[in-house]
Amino acid sequence: MNMHANAKPGEAHGRVAVVDIGSNSVRLVVYDAPTRLPIPMYNEKAQCALGRGLGASGKLSPEGVECALSSIRRFSGLAKAMEVEELILVATAAVREAFDGPDFVKRVQDAIDHEILVLSGEDEAKYAALGLLMGVPYADGVIGDMGGGSLDLVGLDGGVFTKSATFALGHIRLSEAAEGNPQRARTIVDEALSELKWLKSVRGRTLYAAGGSWRALARILIEQTNHPLHVVDNFTLDTDAALKILHLISGAGRHSLEQIPGIPKKRIDTLPFAAAALEGMLIASGAAQVQFSGFGMREGVLLSCLPDELRQQDALLSACKTMKERTGRFSVKGREMLDWMAPLYPDESADEQRLRYAACLMSDIGWNEHPDYRAEHSFIRVLRVPYAGLTHAARALLASTVYVRQNGSIEDPLVQSVLGLLDEGQLSWIKVTGLALRLAHTISGSAPGILPKTQLKIDQGKLQLILCDENRDALLSEAVLRRLKTLGRAYGMKGTIE
Predict the structure, then answer these.
(1) 355 burial type by CB count under 10 A (0-12 exposed, 13-18 middle, 19+ buried)
(2) Do the domains at 16-120+299-307 and 136-294 have one common CATH topology?
(3) Regarding the domain with residue range 16-120+299-307, which homologous superfamily does it belong to in the CATH classification?
(4) Which of 127, 402, 433, 487 could be bridged to 300 by S-S, CB 3.0 to 4.6 A?
(5) How far apart are CA 153 and CA 145, in angstroms?
(6) What's the CA gap between 149 and 51, in Å, rounded?
């Protein structure tokens, strides 16, 4: 990947901050690295609109330049105060294309004594794709990353980069080129994409949508389709349903858009153009569905500077392990529970085992909550964890499982709200897995080393708990026996002690 600056991200072993100098905004995100999927510790954005007027003048907005310089000085100071080990500044389309872009870069470097990576369109697109692959490692189709200045595309063949392209079709540039007319914007997008022959290979596959303006559209689509989970990452909608709503948005006036809840006021003017561009992408590509990504270029930059051993880890399981290490109490091993429960799942697939492992790791997430609210708070936290690698169905599955583990019932209205994302077999899985986790924590007291002294076994229509230690009193209690019987009933068997 070619970098248009002398600096390159190094290998990070501590906190990392990324300053994204975009055509519309300048944003600081501080990550607590090194983990495979660091959670943002701090996130701040300044709406500078560096690229406003760039298409006509060829120069950065003077007001935007001063806003950006002021914001970058602040962000640099914050990074030092937060003891950030590596600060990475990346600039995208506006700085890349403007005649005075090099002057702006020099002013920034003089102001904070730090270099900027000015990304090419191809670099920008591939970083966005790398961010997507954190959670969708075998993504198949095309990713489109829409910023204020450019629309960057990368083809993906089972997680492998293929061809790429970049267009000056960011929501600011598109709005200006169309002279404020969203219908004209659709024509501009159609004409630009019609020359991209490889885009036809996406037909029947997935368009992955990244970038702030398309994430804002995802929130509207979630509202308009009454989707039960208000999480943008991995929200998926088939093309026909998406096109109907996008067409309404691209043709709506400002007053109509203001009536839609959840739309940031600063995006209302450009939202119809983002919708027009997404319409054009769906039609030109022939994609069967659009899937929105909560991860993009910044996460791709971050991932590129992590040690190799971290990049190879499963993003979901790595994040769950990190969370368990930081919030667990006595830290019964996730692997202990996974292996102990295995006799209940003789025919599970690798994907099913992965989700069961994640459930084990998150099963004690609410231990320090008030007992009356433990199940509810655990359910909400798991449902909304900012982790990659989770479809909306998987989120509902894991959250409901942890709810049952914390003495909740899947008959409760809170859980019922998301069960429409699942099938009957998964509902049975939730009951068995949640009750098995409840039993595991009861036997072990959530402490390590105790579960291996027992064993679950299915024999002659009975669910047996075998005690492998002579000290039975340390392993048995009325609560253990009661929860064993409850698990047995869920599994359609009688629970017994051996």
Answers:
(1) buried
(2) yes
(3) ATPase, nucleotide binding domain (3.30.420.40)
(4) 127
(5) 7
(6) 6
Domain 314-497 CATH assignment equals 1.10.3210.10: yes
Dihedral of CA 134/44/221/170: which sign?
A: negative
CB count in 10 Å sphere of residue 124: 29
Instruction: Copy the structure tokens of residue 126.
Output: 């591939």
Tallying the residues shown for the chain, one arrives at 498
CB 375 within 8 A of CB 403: yes
Distance of alpha carbon 287 from the chain centroid: 21
| pLDDT per residue rounded down to tens, the chain (498 residues) | 333 333 455 555 578 999 999 999 999 999 886 565 667 889 999 999 999 999 889 999 999 999 999 999 999 999 999 999 999 999 999 999 999 999 999 999 999 999 999 999 889 888 999 989 888 889 999 999 999 889 999 999 999 999 999 999 999 999 999 999 988 999 999 999 998 999 999 999 999 999 989 999 999 999 899 999 999 999 999 999 999 999 999 888 777 887 776 676 777 888 999 999 999 999 999 999 999 998 889 888 888 877 777 777 888 888 888 777 777 676 678 899 999 999 999 999 999 999 999 999 999 988 888 999 999 999 999 999 888 879 999 999 999 999 999 999 999 999 999 999 999 999 999 999 999 999 999 999 888 888 999 999 998 889 999 988 777 777 888 999 999 999 999 988 898 888
Q: Are 452 and 430 in contact (CB under 8 A)?
A: no
Cis before 34? omega within 30: yes
Q: What is the CATH number of domain 136-294?
A: 3.30.420.150
Contact 207, 282 (CB under 8 A): yes
Phi/psi at 368 (nearest 5 deg)?
-95, 10
**4 closest CA partner among 128, 97, 68:** 97
Question: Residue 403 has which token pair?
Answer: 């709810």
- Domain residue ranges in the chain: 16-120+299-307, 136-294, 314-497
Compute and round to an integer the Cα radius of gyration of the chain: 25
